[in-house]
């Protein structure tokens, strides 16, 4: 049964950005937190490029983020894992789940799911449930259909969803994970996968998702401690479930606070938050960045 890594194992941490925009101060905080903890624990620090989205992720941005990290003075182990070079690993995990009847094809678009939610709200006066990211939960329209007639339509655009209730039945015992802190304390947290519903694990054009690829990568790279922003804390519910289903170890987790802009909004590439390259162009030094973020 999967469990947290043994205490005697050398810690392995990773920083895993996506080359779909320029890194900003929030990324610097996460990378520097991983660096500090790896050094404090005598562990290894890996760099992983999460570029499964081939439309938005570009080689020039891959190069740029590595230049930003080098400018910050962060040293990673040699060898970078790029997700786009390992789709076979994710397909193997997905095939395992498929053989066990834990995933099914879904032909519903996002707009159709939103329409179901809107009709429900209009007819009942009650809001449709949403997942932790605020998206309407999938109503299960294709779940039964996929087992009876969906196989004949597999050529149509579709996604592959996790059958959550079946998955939980297979997983069995209570799902939980350990959250650690910089002082060495550990807190047990009970996972709540039901709040995510039947999540998407792959699309017709991309044989994986963030949830699936990150779980497979962490296991293959021997990651023992996952340090990431608090905005990804809820996603750990699904990650722990997938680890149990795929018979993979569950790392220890730490979720650091997020940085906000002057309006109180989380720094984000999509909002055009000032990038590290912008700061560098204004004459800000890496030493000043480290000092501002509390790493001196």
From TrEMBL:
<comment type="similarity">
    <text>Belongs to the class-I aminoacyl-tRNA synthetase family.</text>
</comment>
<keyword id="KW-0862">Zinc</keyword>
<dbReference type="InterPro" id="IPR049940">
    <property type="entry name" value="GluQ/Sye"/>
</dbReference>
<dbReference type="InterPro" id="IPR020058">
    <property type="entry name" value="Glu/Gln-tRNA-synth_Ib_cat-dom"/>
</dbReference>
<keyword id="KW-0479">Metal-binding</keyword>
<feature type="domain" description="Glutamyl/glutaminyl-tRNA synthetase class Ib catalytic">
    <location>
        <begin position="13"/>
        <end position="275"/>
    </location>
</feature>
<keyword id="KW-0067">ATP-binding</keyword>
<keyword id="KW-0648">Protein biosynthesis</keyword>
<keyword id="KW-0030">Aminoacyl-tRNA synthetase</keyword>
<dbReference type="InterPro" id="IPR000924">
    <property type="entry name" value="Glu/Gln-tRNA-synth"/>
</dbReference>
<dbReference type="InterPro" id="IPR001412">
    <property type="entry name" value="aa-tRNA-synth_I_CS"/>
</dbReference>
<dbReference type="GO" id="GO:0016874">
    <property type="term" value="F:ligase activity"/>
</dbReference>
<dbReference type="Pfam" id="PF00749">
    <property type="entry name" value="tRNA-synt_1c"/>
</dbReference>
<dbReference type="InterPro" id="IPR014729">
    <property type="entry name" value="Rossmann-like_a/b/a_fold"/>
</dbReference>
<keyword id="KW-0436">Ligase</keyword>
<keyword id="KW-0547">Nucleotide-binding</keyword>
<protein>
    <submittedName>
        <fullName>tRNA glutamyl-Q(34) synthetase GluQRS</fullName>
        <ecNumber>6.1.1.-</ecNumber>
    </submittedName>
</protein>
């Amino acid at each position: 049964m999967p469990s947290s890594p043994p205490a005697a194992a050398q810690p392995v941490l990773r920083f895993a950005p996506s080359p779909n925009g320029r890194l900003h101060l929030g990324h610097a905080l996460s990378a520097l937190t991983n660096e500090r903890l790896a050094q404090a624990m005598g562990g290894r620090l890996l760099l992983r490029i999460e570029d499964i989205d081939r439309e938005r992720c570009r080689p020039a941005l891959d190069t740029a983020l590595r230049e930003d990290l080098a400018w910050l003075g962060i040293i990673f182990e040699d060898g970078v894992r790029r997700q786009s070079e390992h789709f076979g690993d994710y397909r193997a995990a997905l095939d395992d789940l498929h053989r066990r009847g834990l995933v099914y094809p879904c032909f519903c678009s996002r707009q159709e799911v939103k329409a179901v939610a809107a009709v429900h709200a209009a007819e009942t006066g009650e809001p449709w449930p949403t997942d932790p990211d605020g998206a309407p939960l999938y109503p299960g329209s294709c779940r039964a259909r996929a087992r009876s007639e969906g196989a004949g339509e597999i050529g149509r655009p579709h996604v592959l969803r996790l059958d959550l209730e079946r998955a939980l039945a297979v997983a069995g015992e209570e799902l939980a994970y350990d959250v650690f802190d910089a002082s060495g304390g550990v807190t047990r947290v009970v996972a709540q996968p039901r709040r995510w519903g039947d999540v998407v694990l792959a699309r017709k054009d991309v044989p994986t998702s963030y949830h699936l690829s990150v779980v497979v990568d962490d296991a293959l790279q021997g990651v023992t401690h996952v340090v990431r922003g608090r905005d990804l804390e809820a996603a750990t519910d699904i990650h722990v479930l997938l680890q149990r289903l795929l018979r993979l170890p569950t790392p220890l987790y730490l979720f650091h606070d997020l940085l906000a802009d002057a309006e109180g909004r989380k720094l984000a590439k999509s909002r055009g938050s000032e990038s590290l390259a912008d700061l560098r162009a204004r004459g800000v030094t890496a030493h000043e960045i480290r000092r501002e973020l509390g790493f001196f």
